[in-house]
Automatic annotation (TrEMBL):
Entry-linked PROSITE patterns: AP_NUCLEASE_F1_4
One protein family per Pfam: Exo_endo_phos
One GO molecular-function entry: double-stranded DNA 3'-5' DNA exonuclease activity
Site positions for Interaction with DNA substrate: H265
One BP annotation, GO: DNA repair
Cofactor binding, note field: Probably binds two magnesium or manganese ions per subunit.
Keywords: Hydrolase, Magnesium, Manganese, Metal-binding
Site (Important for catalytic activity): D235
Site positions per UniProt: Transition state stabilizer: N165
InterPro entries for the chain: AP_endonuc_1, Endo/exonu/phosph_ase_sf, Endo/exonuclease/phosphatase, ExoIII-like
Protein name as annotated: Exodeoxyribonuclease-3
Family classification: Belongs to the DNA repair enzymes AP/ExoA family.
Length: 273
């Protein structure tokens, strides 16, 4: 039997709130997989990254047919973020990360859903490094940290969900030797992520799985990474204290990565009481 629908503004009224993040790596290319997972997993809120579609190309009708309202910020060929809410209307609070008015890349979207402030973010990859792309990554992280501090000061329940393109520690990767020069593992990237956590944010997946290693969230398409389980953890849900106090569970729907024409990421989710 289909669970009772929840009115807008009453997220979680009929049970725990499930919030997910999923780098879809092309929302139209992977649409069938996305819809199949949404129907099976039924998250209350889902943050998407790497839409690789303009605003006009976003498949709003197909997503709405499953009961999800959506807000999104697209970009031709690259980037793009979205927030989907089941039987609720996301109220957009911010469409860009503050600190650099001239930054036109679609990497940050923030909305209120049922009393929780949720951000979908797609942090720059930063490769090759050193170079301009890595400099942009570090500057973007500093802007994120500054904005995150302001969100913490609000005292509201906040979830910063997305593809951070940062492997926080050596325990968050299957084997780091072949990745030593990658921007995802550089000391500067890790230090910026650690400063973010030090503000008072809780890494939900690490909180749920304190032992090493935690579940992977990404397996590259090359060198049979999926078949060898040669994964990384780069998709994170960071919780403000008000949200972390309500955390009851977290996990990775890793089987989604093994489907035909899958994204190289798997959905990551949390449940809040």
């Amino acid at each position: 039997m289909r669970p009772k629908e929840q009115p807008a503004g009453q997220l979680g009224r009929y049970g725990p709130v499930k919030i997910a993040t999923f780098n879809i790596n092309g929302v139209n290319t992977r649409l069938a997989n996305l819809l199949e997972w949404l129907e099976a997993a039924r998250p209350d809120v889902c943050c998407l990254q790497e839409l690789k579609a303009t605003d006009a190309q976003f498949p709003a009708a197909a997503i709405r047919a499953l009961g999800y309202q959506a807000v999104w910020k697209g970009e031709h060929r690259w980037n793009g973020v979205a927030i989907l809410a089941r039987d609720a209307e996301p109220v957009v609070t911010r469409r860009t990360l503050p600190g650099e008015p001239g930054d036109a890349q679609s990497r940050y979207l923030e909305a209120a859903v049922g009393g929780v402030l949720i951000a979908s973010l797609y942090l720059p990859n930063g490769n090759p490094q050193p170079g301009p792309k890595f400099d942009y990554k570090l500057a973007w992280m500093e802007r994120l940290n500054a904005h995150a501090a302001a969100l913490l000061d609000s005292g509201a329940p906040v979830v910063l969900a997305g593809d951070y393109n940062v492997v926080p520690t050596e325990a968050d990767i299957y084997h780091s030797r072949s990745w030593k020069k990658d921007a995802l593992l550089q000391p500067e990237s890790r230090a910026a992520f650690a400063r973010l956590l030090d503000q008072g944010w809780t890494d939900a997946l690490r909180e749920r799985f304190p032992e090493d290693p935690p579940p992977w969230t990404f397996w590259q398409y090359f060198r049979q990474a999926w078949e060898r389980d040669a994964g990384l953890r780069i998709d994170h849900l960071l919780l403000s204290p008000a949200a972390a106090a309500r955390l009851t569970d977290a996990g990775v729907d890793r089987t989604v990565r093994g489907r035909e024409r899958a994204s190289d990421h798997a959905p990551v989710w949390i449940e809040l009481d």
